[in-house]
Design goal:
elongated
Length: 72
């Protein structure tokens, strides 16, 4: 699953929030959000804004490829 699919699943889980509504909540034009979703090009700061917009916490971790455990 890529980041765009993950965001879409979160939007559904949060009550079927539309891309247009997410763009409004993150203070960007819908076209800009659509391009980021299409190209999967998000900065960490943008993901933090999305998390805030859907009342969630962003959790970024590095996992060991062999054990799948967090490195830290």
């Amino acid at each position: 699953m890529d980041i765009s699919e993950y965001i879409d699943l979160c939007l559904v889980k949060r009550g079927k929030i539309s891309h247009a509504e997410l763009a409004r909540r993150t203070e960007q034009k819908p076209q800009v959000l659509y391009e980021k979703l299409k190209n999967k090009t998000f900065k960490l700061s943008e993901l933090e804004k999305i998390a805030k917009a859907i009342n969630a916490t962003l959790d970024v971790r590095f996992l060991d490829n062999d054990t799948k455990e967090p490195l830290i």
